[in-house]
Amino acid sequence: MLAPFLQYLISGITVGMVYAFSALGFSLIYNASGVVNFAQGEFIMLGGMLAVFFSKAGLPFPAAAVLAIVIPTLLGMMIERLTIARAKNAEILSLIIITIGISLVLRGLTQIFMGKAVHALAPISDSRPIHLAGAVMHSQSPWVLGFTVTVMAMLWYFFRHSLSGKKILATSCNRSAAQLMGINTQWVMTFSYAMAAALGSLAGVLITPITMTSYDVGIMLGLKGFIGAVVGGMGSGMGAIAGGLIVGIAESLGAGYISSAYKDAMAFLLIFVILFLRPRGLFGAKATDRV
Amino acid sequence: MNEVQKSPFLGLWFLGVTLILLLALLPNGYFLDIAIRMAINAIIIIMLNLLIGFAGQISLGHAAFFGIGAYSSAILPAHFGWPSALALVFGALFSGVLALILARLIFRFKGHYLAMVTLGLGIIVSVILTNETAWTGGPDGMAVQDLDLLGHKLPGDRSWLGLTGFLLILCVWGTINLMESPFGRALRALHGSETAAAAAGVDLARYKMAVFALSAVPTSIMGSLTAHYVGFVTPNLAGFTHSIEMLTMVVLGGMASIYGSVLGAVLLTALPQLLATLDGWETVALGAILVITMIFLPKGIVPTLTVYLGKHSR
Fold first, then answer.
1. Looking at the complex, does the CB of residue A114 fall below 8 Å from at least one CB of chain B?
2. Fewer CB near the terminus (10 Å): N or C of chain B?
């Protein structure tokens, strides 16, 4: 009775941490510009696919992982400079459509250059599963947990104690006021895209040994991260982490107790529940509209 | 809406003449097939454009309504012996009611909630269609019976083009008139400024609800017709990619433009025919069109051209 529950909980939390990374990426960009970045999932996909690519090319894992994070990060900055920054006076709707277009381009190019096959990646430590009170844990899970906690702590420090972090917070609080205070809000935008891409690709590298990867996993991973961000309250950092975990756990419990075929539908049902009960999300601020 | 004010029905004549020429001149099944798909897509895009262009709301799951229509027309006659016309009406009603319920839930709030809720709807509908194998044939899809209109069957592709072309002209004529009605004026006010429209007494939530349902019903009907026309349905019809294709058509042709919708549908229905052998590049092309249009032609082709021609004719 307890063992299967524990089992679902463990796998839910592991996947949930990936959704949390993705949700954080959404929140970062949403805060900086009000845009829902639909390309977020493709960075997760790119992280996993590039790690596979460089591992197969013979690089040791740490080098492959670093490259698989650095390349999407640079790509994120480039995308912001070349597209979002150019459509300066565009409506939010247009910017969202641009990010949808970017996600299609990234997915299509990956399909062309790496094919449609599903790829596996070796776990960081040896691949024997870990037994825990009757439940079985993938040997990668502790690594995912460790990296998540470390990165979250670093992010917390960054936003609390560094000037760059405070610039981002100031910009998301009030863009024009931040600009008047001499903050380069254009830099903040580019940096936000870089950070979102870095978080996404790191999540991709971490989860691939467990879930495997292919050119089209970005849609679902991105959407679930997005739901996590909405559930937690769009724009809230704490909310993104909590929301991502909730989506992961709900999905895993739903797959275990209801039907694994409807695993993907579970996350989307959550959207309806949250819209009914708490439309601003768990940690969302009560927003007032400026006219 | 410049184009409509200047020459509201000129385009309609143009469409009518084009249709007759196509009916008379198109040589073989392949080109007829593309023309039929263009007409079907154009109707969907005109209605979807009312939602995106005027109400300023993105639907990322409009293919769900298309799928509901298609599968109503596939399942109800096959499993329950319903006449196909009744199945089509059922699908349309179901889509309309579903849209109204969702809209009621969403439009209490400002912001881009519709994008995510329609996204969720699209995914849930495709997951159901893929998994309920006993009813839907699962990922392999299922065959659909011929369309039966009061005992008459459509004899061939030429009559299909006649039917869909006629519906397209009806749809353009209807939306032009709709835009001149009090409802249309409210929509245009909404498009200009939501705050100003609300101040002038437009009930934002109610109009958005109405437009969403209004765009869902024809999409479902076109799904039904497509199912009968092709004779086969798969869950891909309701999939995310199909929804994105619809969005791209709206954006390329021009938001809030009726003839832009027709042009967007025509261009992007032709595109896969050109790229059919290049798997993957099709996705890249769709994405690139979205990005490039939004950066360089944010208003889309037809409204940009209208403004340009207007400047030079004076």
1. no
2. C
